[in-house]
């Protein structure tokens, strides 16, 4: 008797045997399908891993290239670049900033930005500039900083707080530029401009003096009273100047005239003989520092006016 022989030849046992065979075949087919399905997924996963590896490689290479380019850009900047934390402490300095400050990077990092200032006033201005964080704008401040061994220079600080760096440092980006040469040129330009303006005033004054002296049928009294009003217009401190004219014993003077240690006189001559003098006196507040009421050009102006008056007499 075999294993697959129906028991007692009854039909129901033959049906059970058929069902068992079908279940066995279905189970075998399931195993085969699962085997090939898993194998196919493994191949797909392997391909996907390969693609991801290639993509990650390209991404990593791109990031390295970008980082290298970023470093080159920062390294080749003509401006100094400083990064700070939220407490104004410097946490990064590029090569240009080290050159401007004449300090090694290790010495710059860890300092507060205001510690680089010359004095309390400049430090206060830096602190105010750093408060731009509250407004979200970019500010620019011109301050005096110290570089190297206590050498002072003028610097322009542009302070901003980029949103992208807020989560990284919470601090600011500061662009540092040495503008000492620019400030020096600006001061020279202001000095030249001031000198030019003063020259124009002196020429206008001489022109008015010549007009007064050239007016016909004008007596000495009227002419001198007019000159007393005109002469101060050619001087820097016009409002603090008073004029006196003495001629042959006759005196003509501004109401506020008085002699001070800043009085300058030029002689008046008639036919080569001294007949009086033209006196211009500074009666303003005490000059401070190197301030001088009369420059050489102003003394020359007073002397020229005296010579013109002498020729007209």
Would you mind describing this structure in some detail?
By secondary structure, the chain is an alpha+beta fold. It folds into 3 domains: 7-73; 80-178, PAS domain (Beta-Lactamase); 185-312, 2-Layer Sandwich (Beta-Lactamase), CATH 3.30.450.40. The chain is built from 7 helices and 9 strands; from the N terminus they run H-E-E-H-H-H-E-E-E-H-H-E-E-E-E-H. The protein has helices at residues 11-75, 95-101, 105-108, 120-130, 180-214, 220-230, 296-312, and strands at 80-84, 90-93, 139-147, 151-160, 173-178, 241-247, 250-253, 263-270, 273-282. It has a 5-stranded antiparallel sheet with strand order 2-1-5-4-3, sandwiched between helices. Strand 6 and strand 7 form a beta hairpin. The longest helix is centred in the first third of the chain and has 65 residues, at 11-75. The model is unreliable at 1-8 (pLDDT under 50).
